[in-house]
Specification:
By secondary structure, the protein is mainly alpha-helical. It has six helices and no strands. The longest helix has about 35 residues.
């Protein structure tokens, strides 16, 4: 079990911020358990391929699907925990209020990209679902559930992005003592 920690949220509380954070924290904790079968299946496939000399036809397909679920559904949680890659060298010396202003200005790019991902991801996923698309492999497991994770993951990122946007707006409105901005 993953030890329970408070999410790395700011003290700013807004109903949408709380809801988005709770949803993404719950999803992140649940999907983190996918690492166990991913690790087991990888080790099993390596053993079967190189020791027994009889590779499976299903292990990599299943691992691709499990990794896709982990990555697509984990994005919102990673944003909540401030775990995405950032160019920190440019912003570490900026006071919190000015950093919030910079985040507000650049949030357009985030929302633009994820709205497109949600829109087109839904279109591709729904088309795949209607066709009951299968992976083009020997095992041929269904592909459409994994493709449906793209718009779901984009939605989770968007709600966490809106929560961060609210926090940044509130930070910009604050006037703290000693803040030179």
């Amino acid at each position: 079990m993953i030890p329970r920690q408070e999410p790395k949220m700011d003290t700013i509380r807004h109903p949408l911020v709380n809801w988005a954070s709770k949803v993404n924290e719950w999803v992140g904790r649940v999907i983190s358990f996918l690492l166990f079968p991913i690790t087991f299946i990888t080790a099993l496939e390596v053993f079967m391929r190189y020791v027994v000399k009889k590779p499976t036809i299903w292990a990599w397909d299943l691992n691709i699907q499990l990794n896709a679920a982990l990555i697509m559904l984990g994005g919102g949680y990673t944003l909540l925990e401030k775990g995405h890659v950032a160019v920190d060298i440019l912003v570490t010396s900026i006071p919190p209020r000015r950093r919030a202003i910079l985040d507000l200005v650049t949030s357009f790019f985030f929302f633009f990209g994820f709205v497109i991902l949600l829109w087109y991801g839904w279109d591709v996923a729904w088309t795949s679902w209607k066709a009951r698309e299968a992976m083009p492999t020997v095992w041929a497991p269904p592909y459409y559930p994994i493709k449906m994770l793209v718009p779901i993951g984009a939605f989770l990122m968007l709600i966490q992005g809106v929560a961060k946007l609210i926090q940044d707006f509130q930070r910009v409105r604050e006037r703290r003592e000693g803040d030179p901005s």
